[in-house]
Design brief:
Helix content: 40-55%
Order of helices and strands: HHHEE
Distance between the termini: 55 Å
GO molecular function: asparaginyl-tRNA synthase (glutamine-hydrolyzing) activity; ATP binding; glutaminyl-tRNA synthase (glutamine-hydrolyzing) activity; transferase activity
Strand order of the largest sheet: 1-2
Family: Belongs to the GatC family.
Radius of gyration: 29 Å
Number of helices: 3
InterPro entries: Asp/Glu-ADT_sf_sub_c, GatC
Strand content: under 5%
Structural class: mainly alpha
Number of strands: 2
Shape: flat
GO biological process, one term: translation
Keywords: ATP-binding, Ligase, Nucleotide-binding, Protein biosynthesis, Transferase
Largest sheet: 2 strands, antiparallel
């Protein structure tokens, strides 16, 4: 796919970006390289390949779900300036 400098300048204008001539040339070159890579990747025959959910065929080891800390709700709420029914009360910010 061809991508030329005028398109870069047009996009820069629409995005309200100021780019110099050398920057426009560099961006044009980089975008052209990216589009060439995409074309190359699309030309690969993947008909016999099954889609993967993950590139590695591994199983995640899971640990047992155990409680490791005690409930400290009452202790922590005792430190709060104001609470009610197990909830922290904070000053109203927006009216």
């Amino acid at each position: 796919m061809a991508f030329d400098k005028s398109e870069v300048e047009k996009i820069a204008h629409l995005a309200r970006l100021h780019i110099s001539e050398s920057e426009a040339d560099e961006v044009t070159s980089r975008i052209t390289d990216i589009l060439a890579l995409i074309d190359e990747m699309q030309s690969v025959d993947t008909d016999s390949i099954e889609p993967l959910s993950h590139p590695l065929d591994v199983v995640q080891r899971l640990r047992t779900d155990e409680v490791t800390e005690q409930n400290q709700r009452e202790k922590l709420q005792a430190l709060a300036p104001d609470n009610q029914d197990g909830l922290y009360l904070v000053p109203k910010v927006l009216e």
